[in-house]
Amino acid sequence: MLRKKHLFMFVIAAASTMPVLAQKVYRCGNTYSQQPCFDATTVQTEDPRSESQKAQARQAAQRDAKLANDMEKSRLKEEAQAAKLGQIPQPAKPASAKTQARTDEPKTSTDNKKAKKPAYFTAVAPTKPDAASGQKKKSD
Length: 140
Hints:
Elements: H1 2-16, E1 25-28, E2 31-33, E3 41-43, H2 51-85, H3 97-104, H4 129-133
Antiparallel strand pairs: 1-2, 1-3
C-alpha cells in the first residue's frame, strides 16, 4: 500500500513538471488575444533558446543583481562618509500634511476690504452644537 502511494505521488510530481502545451496567441492590431479576429496574425510564444542559453541568461541576471547590490552598498557607504564630513546637507524633515495644506492656500492682503475667494474649495464636516460647546444634552 505504501509503495502504491509513493508511486502515485511520483507520477503526480512528474506530470506537474511536464511542459504545458501553449495556446495560440493572435495579434489583432495593437492588442493580443486567444481568440482570432478579422485579419489576425499568429504570434510565436515558444522560447527558442536552448537549455544552455537559458542557464547563461540566469547566471548573467544573478551576476548583474549581485553587482547592483554591491554598487548600492558602496554608494550608501560613500554618502554616509560624505554626510559625516559635512559635504552633503542632511535632508530636511518632511512637513506634516496640515502644514503643507496651510502653505498651499492663497494669501489675502490685509489692506483689501473685500476678501478674495480661495483658489480651491475645501470641504469641512459640520460640528454638532453639543460637541462644540462641550455641554451634554439634558434628557427629560
